[in-house]
Write a structure and sequence with these properties.
Layout: H1 3-13, H2 20-34, H3 45-55, H4 59-70, H5 74-91, H6 98-115, H7 118-134, H8 138-155, H9 158-174, H10 178-194, H11 198-209, H12 216-229, H13 240-253, H14 262-270, H15 277-292, H16 296-313, H17 316-335
Helix pairs in contact: 1-2, 1-3, 2-3, 3-4, 3-5, 4-5, 4-6, 6-7, 7-8, 7-9, 8-9, 9-10, 9-11, 10-11, 11-13, 12-13, 13-14, 13-15, 14-15, 15-16, 16-17
Length: 336
């Protein structure tokens, strides 16, 4: 275990006694970041410290301080920005208010623009693209995503461009541009493989890719392709969750109930986000499995739980999808 993890352990030990559960969770998450990561030893500490800052309520201030400290030093800035990307995805999935996160990102963007720091602008666009997309502001999300792609490309931030293209594909799909939606995540996957953080990004991109196929057979082929790519040495407590949720839903729709056991892994991963939207995502995928098993009442309950969970987390785009699936289930039940 490296020095960065031991530094995290010291920080966690200093948390108030009432946060014992958080201490245990952070220790577990810290090991996921530290063990067998491709990041350099010196770049492991930023994400670990960011986790502590988030649980202590100061992630926005911490990340802004870390970024402004290095954005004038390109040789250091790249490592710091890449190291914070996974934690950023985590924070955006914890149920923190998106308007607060967006406000912080806008302040960071203004500061970066004033300083002429393109990497700072790219990171701010990373946060803004997610908040707009999850809130269902699709056109605003598309514009922020295009900006994030451009800025990341300009500074050579492959680790930033990959998730920007992944989310751009999701926005285009919701806007009805299926050809564009397919092209973006495929390019995102190529970038993920050559990025400094493939152990995070490859999972994220495959999770997005699995939502694209109309045909179940194509989606199953994607799962088979993904499983040959994942490196067993990759350790992350968070990023595989989206892939496991999407894969479990696909296997359930295909009637591959034995393979739908992948959903159990998604449920374990969602446990890292108490009260966040991943619990809703697992419920939505679980509804697919219940429907395939003929448990329509239970599937209806699961979809209602998913829609309510997305709503509480402010993920209006996902809430709409869950409610649409619920309406379809209810219509099928009536017609039967």
């Amino acid at each position: 275990m490296d020095d960065g993890f031991h530094a995290l352990q010291g920080s966690i030990d200093g948390l108030p006694g009432g946060q014992v559960g958080w201490r245990e969770r952070l220790m577990r998450e810290g090991r996921g970041f530290s063990a067998r990561t491709s990041l350099s030893r010196s770049s492991r500490s930023p994400p670990l410290k960011a986790l502590v800052a988030h649980v202590d309520g100061g992630w926005e201030q911490h990340s802004r301080r870390q970024l402004t400290r290095v954005w004038d030093a390109p040789e250091v800035a790249g490592h710091t920005f890449d190291a914070l990307l996974c934690v950023t995805e985590y924070v955006l999935s914890t149920g923190d208010p998106y308007d607060r996160l967006a406000g912080s990102a806008k302040r960071l963007r203004a500061q970066a623009q004033q300083a002429g720091a393109l990497r700072g602008e790219a990171f701010a666009a990373t946060v803004l693209r997610e908040t707009e997309l999850f809130a269902g502001n699709l056109e605003a999300a598309r514009l922020h995503l295009l900006d994030a792609v451009r800025l990341s490309r300009e500074v050579g931030a492959v680790g930033g461009e990959s998730p920007a293209r992944m989310r751009l594909g999701e926005a285009l799909l919701s806007l009805g541009d299926r050809p564009g939606a397919r092209a973006q995540p495929e390019e995102a996957l190529e970038l993920a493989h050559v990025s400094p953080i493939p152990q995070h990004l490859v999972y994220l991109v495959y999770g997005a890719l699995l939502r694209l196929p109309d045909e179940v057979a194509e989606a199953l082929a994607l799962i088979a392709r993904a499983e040959t790519v994942f490196d067993p040495r990759w350790v992350c407590s968070f990023c595989p969750t989206g892939y496991h949720v999407a894969a479990g839903a696909v296997c359930a729709r295909a009637g591959e109930l034995a393979r739908a056991g992948v959903l159990e892994r998604a449920e374990r991963g969602a446990g890292g986000w108490p009260g966040g939207p991943w619990t809703a995502a697992v419920a939505e995928a679980r509804a697919e499995l219940l429907r395939a098993e003929g448990e329509l009442d239970a599937a209806e309950t699961a979809l209602r739980r998913a829609a309510e969970g997305y709503s509480a987390a402010g993920q209006l785009l996902n809430e709409r999808r869950a409610r649409k699936a619920l309406e379809g289930l209810l219509r099928a039940d009536v017609s039967a």
